[in-house]
Amino acid sequence: MNTFVHFGAVAWLFVATFSIKSQAQQLVLIGGALKTCASLSPQYCQPNTVFPTAAKTTRWFQITPQHLTQLSRAWPTGSEDLSRLMTQLKRSDANKRYSYAELLSLLDSGEQPLSKRLDDTQWALLLDSLEVPALTQQGTRQVEMVQAARTQLAGSQAILANMAALIAATPSKKYLAITASSHDPYDAADFYENLLNDFDVKGEWLALTIPLAQALSSGRCQDLATLRQQLSTSHSRERVYPERTQQEQLWCEKGVAALIAKIKSADAVFFNGGDQSLAKQVLFDEHNQPYPWFAALQSRAVIIGTSAGTALQSGGSNGHGSVAMVTNGTSEAAIKFGAFDQAAPADNCSEYQSCQAEHLNYLTYDPKGGLGSFTAGILDTHFSERSRTLRLATLLAHTGQRLGFGVDETTALVANVTPSHTELQVMGEHGVVVLESKSAAEFVYHYLQPADSAKLDAKNTLSLTLASSASASQALSDATYTDAIFAKNGFKNLVQSFCQSGQQTFSYDFSTAHKYALTLARSTATQCQLNKNKTYSIKNLNIIINKK
Asked: Which of 20, 218, 253, 460 has the most beta carbons within 10 angstroms of its beta carbon?
C-alpha cells in the first residue's frame, strides 16, 4: 500500500512541474523484465485471469513447400545446419498449423535436437519463414492483449501504474510506442500499444521502423517492401501482420512533416526492449546525423524505456564529454579486453556469458550515444542480474565519464529532469546501482532501492539520501563470499555480503587473462542500510581493482 502512495507522489510531482516549467521532462528508465500480464505471457498474471477468445496466445507455423523454399533461399551461406533442418521439417504435415510448442517438439524429435544448435539469427529466420497469422474464427487477426492491472508482481504493477499516471497528467494523455529495438517490430506492436489499457491510457504504435526511416529520408516509399526485406532483421511480416506493414507504408506516403506532427501530437513516447543498436537506426542516418524527427522525439514530456529502450536514452554531453551508449559485452570480457568503439556483434548472445566465440562477449559502445534524453551518465540495464558492474566501471574509465547508472530488472529509475537539477527515485522490485569513477582502477559504489533518492545539480554533482533502516544493521560474520562475481547476481551478492559482515575491508581474488584483486573498503562516509526486503541500500562504498 505504501508503495503505491509513494509512486503517486512521483506522478504528482511531475504534474506540478509540467504545468509550471515546460522544459521539465520525466524519464522512466526500466531495467527490463517488467513481467507484465499478457495473453502471450500468462505466467505473469494473477490466478484466474481470463483473456477473450480474440486474444493471441501463441504463434502459429505452417511448413509448406513455399515456406521451406523461402527459408532455404534466405538461410545464411556456409551454415552446416540447413540440411539437417530441412530433413527434420520435411517430416511434418504441410496442412497442419503448429503451435510454437509443437514446432519445438518437431525440431527436437530427431537424434540431434536442433533447437539448441541454431544461433539467434538462424532461429529468428526459421520462425519468421514458417509463421502464419493467428486468426479468430471470424478470420480476423488475433491480438496480444495485456491486463497490466492483473500483473502478479507488485513492483511491476507499481511501475505500470506510475507510468499511466505520468502520461494521464499530460495534455494529450496518450503515448506513442516505438518498437524498433525488436528483431520483429511488427510483432511487438500489439503488446506495447495495449500496455496501459487497464489504466484507461491510450497507446498507439508508431510505425517508425528502420525500413521506414530509410525510405522516408531517401524518398523511396515505392521501394519500402524491398527495403523491408533488405534492412529488417525479420521476414515475411506482410503475411503475418498485413495491417502493420500497411501502416508503415501509409506513414511513408504521408511524409516527414506528417510524421513529426504525429510525434508532437503525443506528450509521451515508449521505447521497447531488444537491441539499442537497432533502435538508434531510426534516430540517426548512416552518417550518424539525426533524422528530422529526432528533436520531436527527444523533447517529449514523458519518455519511457525498458531494457534497450533505457540504454538508448544515454547520449548528449556533459562536463566530462560525450555520453556513450553501451551496446554489448560482459563484465568478464570487459576486464580481460577493455572496451571497443565499434558495432556490437551480430549474434548478441552475451546474456550470461553464453557466447561460444570470445569476441562475441566484447564490451562495445557507441561514443555518440543514443537519444540523449539522459545526459548525467551512462545507462545500463539487467544490471545486478547479469553482474554488469565491472562492465560499466570499465566503460566509465575508458570514456572518461564520471557517473554510470545500472538499473536492475523489474525496476525503474525515474528521473525528473529540469534545467537546474535532476531528481532521481527508484521503484519496483530491486534497485539501481550508481557508480562514480575515480580512476581507471577505483570507483565508488552506491545501491539505491525504493524510498531512497538522489539528486544531481546543474554541475552534475551527486547527492544521495537513503531511507531509514528497517532494523539496526549488525555484523553477523566475516565475509566469506566465494561464488563467481561474473555469475548471475554475483557482484551484488558480494557487496551485500560485505555490508552484512561489518568488515572494514575485504579482498576478493579473481582471474581472467590475468590475476586481479578486488578490494571493498568502507570509509567514514560509507552507509549500509538494511531494507525491509532484507537487502542493503549502500552509499559510498569504495571499490578498487588491481592487477596482481
From this structure: 460
CA 283, 286, 287, 291 dihedral sign is negative
* Range 15-20 contact pairs with CB under 8 angstroms and sequence separation of 24 or more: 15/169, 17/416, 17/418, 18/169, 18/170, 18/301
Residue 380 is inside which H or E element, if any? strand 378-380
Cell numbers found for residue 430: 530491486
Q: How far apart are CA 88 and CA 302, in angstroms?
A: 49
**Tally of CB atoms within 10 A around 70:** 18
* DSSP SS3 for 52: coil
Mean pLDDT of 135-155: 97
Ramachandran area for residue 213 (φ above 0: left; ψ -120 to 50: alpha; else beta):
alpha
Which of the 8 DSSP states describes residue 31? -
pLDDT > 50? residue 31: yes
C-alpha of 411 from chain center: 11
- What is the rounded distance in angstroms from the CA atom of residue 189 to the CA atom of residue 209? 11
Label residue 116 by pLDDT band (50, 70, 90): confident
Tell me what pLDDT residue 482 has.
54
* Mean pLDDT for the stretch of residues 526-533: 94
Determine the length of the chain.
548
Q: Are 71 and 125 in contact (CB under 8 A)?
A: yes
Report which residue type is found at 215: A
Are 89 and 68 contacting, i.e. CB atoms less than 8 angstroms apart? yes
DSSP string for residues in 474-517: ---S-----S-TTSTTHHHHHHHHHHHHT-SEEEEEEESSSEEE
**Please, which contacts does 531-537 make with residues 24 or more away whose CB atoms are closer than 8 Å?**
531/449, 531/451, 531/467, 531/469, 531/470, 532/470, 533/449, 535/430, 535/431, 535/449, 535/496, 536/447, 536/473, 536/495, 536/496, 536/499, 536/500, 537/431, 537/447, 537/448, 537/449, 537/452, 537/466, 537/467
pLDDT, tens only, 465-485? 999 765 544 444 555 555 589
Q: What is the pLDDT of residue 16?
A: 38
Task: Report how far residue 433's alpha carbon sits from residue 492's, in angstroms, rounded to the nearest whole number.
Answer: 9
Determine the pLDDT at residue 503. Answer: 94
pLDDT score at 475: 45
Residue ranges of alpha helices (H) inside 58-184 are 65-74, 82-89, 100-107, 120-130, 154-168
Residue 190 near residue 141 (C-beta atoms within 8 A) = no
Cell 519518455 belongs to 303
Q: What is the largest CA-CA distance in the chain?
A: 72
β-pair type (25-30, 411-417): antiparallel
Whole-prediction pTM: 0.93
- Cβ contacts of 418 within 8 Å, gap of 6 or more: 17, 21, 23, 24
CA distances to 8, 190, 402, 446, 461 from 464, in Å: 21, 39, 16, 9, 10
The amino acid that residue 136 corresponds to is T
